[in-house]
Design goal:
Layout: H1 2-25, H2 27-45, H3 73-79, H4 84-102, H5 104-114, H6 119-130, H7 137-147, H8 153-160, H9 177-202, H10 206-214, H11 219-230, H12 232-244, H13 251-257, H14 263-266, H15 269-279, H16 283-311
Length: 317
């Protein structure tokens, strides 16, 4: 028994020494990671101590330690809020549209870009598709507001091709908001989101394509039977991340496109937290709503990760 324990300890020391030597051999690379870790600790982990105010009646005029405990009061208040159903429906509605329709679009776009053989045209197409990502939603909010007004270019175009008979105020009618959120977000992020899939496609063994060409396989068949299966792991991971953020709509986008007329279809959890937290100063209540959203997101990550691992054999962890 003592001999076995000594052997285990020896193996453990060898592994520890190997890891230490590897770390020291990469010390400069490890030091480059250090600023990122410090930033993450300061801005992501340190503020988590403030979560406690979700369970306290906090006022900014006194320290958190002096605030009285209220338990789950603010969680119950949110669940019983008259706006809860509408806010949850808007959040899930927009997020599910982006998941069902918006998520596959970058994959399809990456597959199509990969089939372009003219290198110059391919690079131009990629560059043009990336550009909208670098525009702020503050800028795009103003552009879309102008384009989608009754006198905007969208109405002029739709009337010219006889789709509409008279101008429509798209941002002034709540029924159009979900569709506009989907289209504007897909247009802005399509090219940028496709980068990771293009990178995954670039790592596919080219020998498989050559063998398929010899066997007379068409380009469409290569796409479905070689390219897609080869990037399944990347798609699975991105899908897990997308599902985990179902309750986190694009705050910048919604905030710049919503108004008092379309608020019945544009008010989501993120904008609601901003409104009651920053606008009304109800910090404890807004912290409770934010924590509620984070708990659901954690559950979705675990559920989607286990499902992906069981069905595809691919997962985040």
């Amino acid at each position: 028994m003592a001999k076995a324990e000594a052997q285990v300890e020896k193996i453990h020391k060898l592994k520890t020494g190997k890891l230490l030597r590897k770390f020291l051999g990469q010390k400069y690379l490890q030091l480059m990671v250090l600023p990122g870790l410090i930033w993450m600790f300061i801005f992501n982990y340190l503020p988590m101590g403030g979560i406690i105010i979700a369970f306290k009646k906090y006022r900014i005029t006194r320290p958190i330690s002096e605030a009285p405990w209220v338990g789950l009061r603010y969680f119950e208040e949110f669940l019983n809020d008259s706006n809860f159903t509408n806010i949850l429906a808007n959040t899930l509605g927009i997020s599910l549209l982006k998941l069902i329709i918006g998520f596959p679009l970058p994959i399809i776009f990456a597959l199509l870009i990969n089939e372009i053989r003219n290198i110059k045209f391919k690079r131009i197409s990629q560059t043009i598709s990336y550009l909208p990502h670098f525009l702020s939603w503050v800028v795009l909010g103003g552009i879309f507001t102008t384009w989608l007004s009754k006198n905007g270019v969208i109405n002029d175009f739709l009337i010219a091709i006889n789709v509409l008979k008279e101008p429509v105020s798209f941002l002034g009618d709540p029924k159009y908001f979900w569709g506009l959120a989907l289209i504007s977000d897909s247009w802005k992020e399509l090219g940028w989101s496709a980068i990771i899939y293009l990178a995954a496609i670039a790592s596919v063994d080219q020998g498989m394509y050559e063998a398929a060409t010899v066997d007379g396989v068409s380009k469409l068949q290569k796409m479905f039977y070689i390219t897609l299966p080869s990037i399944t792991g990347t798609i699975a991971i991105m899908l897990i991340l997308q599902i985990s953020s179902l309750l986190s709509t694009n705050f910048d986008q919604i905030m710049n496109l919503k108004n008092q007329i379309n608020i019945s279809r544009s008010q989501v959890i993120d904008t609601y937290v901003y409104q009651i937290g920053i606008g009304e100063g109800r910090y404890s209540y807004s912290a409770a709503v934010g924590l509620f959203k984070s708990i659901i997101a954690s559950f979705l990550v675990i559920l989607s990760n286990r499902t992906s691992k069981k069905l595809l054999g691919r997962s985040l962890y």
